[in-house]
Design goal:
Length: about 240
């Protein structure tokens, strides 16, 4: 009996913690919250309080987008009792998180999983960013995602939060891939998804537009948010 009570006491904190943890989802450039619906469903089923945020990615620069989208999300009523708030992002969404928390540190920030983030920019922007059609389609934020030292991702510095990055190494956009050095997902080079300070980096054979919908990506994301690692924990 004493053993059973001890086990219950041991498990209680983790149960309470998961019930009080939120996750904010941020989609990528030229996408909408609908692209993150499958991820949101999986996170909700796992017990997280989820906010799948829609923001106008093509209308403003990265600084303005990050402040507006993340401040609004953090102030949502459902998060007020959360002890930790995690983030799951796709592409540009990851840069918004880096930009925001560089200037707005928070004790409630939990773990972050970035899917295909251009953490060191993308050669696609270097090559096509000056084209009028590119600017019309991608807006001010898209113009900031090049690989130059002065490009926004390269000015944000190392991350100081618990970060796991999932990169894809499959492309269905061979034209873009011709512009990218090394393995890529059709938008971002695998190597350029990395950032100083990240905890783990995982490569899966998935293309950029479908990272957030892939079963293995979703499973790995849940594992990192719960345990702080993409590697499955051993059960005894």
């Amino acid at each position: 009996m004493r053993f059973i009570i001890s086990i219950a006491i041991f498990l209680l904190p983790s149960l309470t913690m998961s019930a009080a943890e939120g996750v904010i989802l941020l989609h990528g450039l030229c996408r909408s919250s609908a692209s993150m619906d499958k991820m949101a469903t999986a996170l909700t089923a796992s017990g997280f309080i989820v906010a799948n945020v829609d923001y106008p990615s093509r209308t403003r620069n990265i600084a303005a987008l990050s402040t507006a989208a993340i401040t609004t999300a953090l102030n949502r009523p459902e998060f007020q009792d959360c002890t930790q708030i995690h983030f799951v992002t796709h592409s540009l969404g990851g840069i918004l998180v880096r930009a925001y928390f560089k200037n707005h540190p928070s004790t409630r920030l939990g773990r972050v999983v970035m899917l295909g983030p251009p953490n060191q920019g993308s050669e696609v922007v270097d090559k096509l960013g000056s084209w009028r059609i590119f600017k019309l389609l991608n807006g001010p934020a898209g113009d900031e995602l090049g690989t130059a030292l002065e490009a926004t991702p390269n000015t944000l510095g190392p991350v100081d939060f618990e970060l796991g990055v999932i990169a894809g190494d499959r492309s269905i956009n061979w034209i873009n891939s011709l512009l990218i050095k090394g393995a890529d997902d059709g938008k971002v080079a695998v190597e350029r998804t990395k950032v100083a300070g990240m905890k783990e980096h995982l490569i899966l054979h998935v293309t950029h537009p479908y990272l957030m919908k892939n079963r293995k990506v979703i499973e790995s994301t849940l594992r990192f948010l719960k345990n702080g690692s993409f590697t499955p924990s051993l059960t005894i």
